[in-house]
């Protein structure tokens, strides 16, 4: 079913191109591992099993990592009411609603399809935001579900995860068993590490580029659906400012799921370092919302550019 979230052709093109390039990389990676390890059955079975597990259980893994739990309407009536209203406006299925007992203000959406999705917010977010700001954040997360970019990011992240695991396995196998291996085995393991490291680096950059664009697309869709880009800009400014005051040690514990968050646990870096960021900078997001605000004839929120 097509939702009323405004479709984003540029996002669709980027998702398609990213998946195509990662598909080619995936085939090359599997072929290289088969040649090096001389066991195509083992390689294919393991990779397919891990991909299937990541695709089908990504929502549970994310909820577990964020210490989230599913909540019913009786427990959080206001939160459910906002999600109900937005889903009715957007004409989309209501996702499972979850809350994480974390002081870090944030939110994320996950799931393999609009019919199997979860939207989770932290108690830290609920304490800090006004109703209009919370609506903007939830609309942002629901747009990820409607655009199906959550599922794409989950699948796209798979190759990098596998490559990283192969590097670790090869490294520790070499460290703890290197003395017992002959020279040929050592060369094979070195080649596996080199191929895996290259695949990880390429997939890392491709996923990061897609992740940054999908955040801008979600901001646009949320602002257009609610008609209040200033509320979303206010939420962004408030949450980003509060995250900056949380000890970095606490933020690093959840940084592995940065790509799924409303705002990154550790802020987006400017300049060349931004290539490694999962999110565009706060300034980029506020500038875009300021332009949408002007287009809609709404007074821009403080801190946005018109």
Automatic annotation (TrEMBL):
This is Protease HtpX homolog. Its EC number is 3.4.24.-. Its main location: membrane. The lineage of its organism: Bacteria, Bacillati, Actinomycetota, Actinomycetes, Kitasatosporales. It comes from Streptomyces asoensis. GO terms for biological process: proteolysis. The active site is at 141. Keywords: Cell membrane, Hydrolase, Membrane, Metal-binding, Metalloprotease, Protease, Transmembrane, Transmembrane helix, Zinc. The gene is htpX1. CDD domains: M48B_HtpX_like (cd07327).
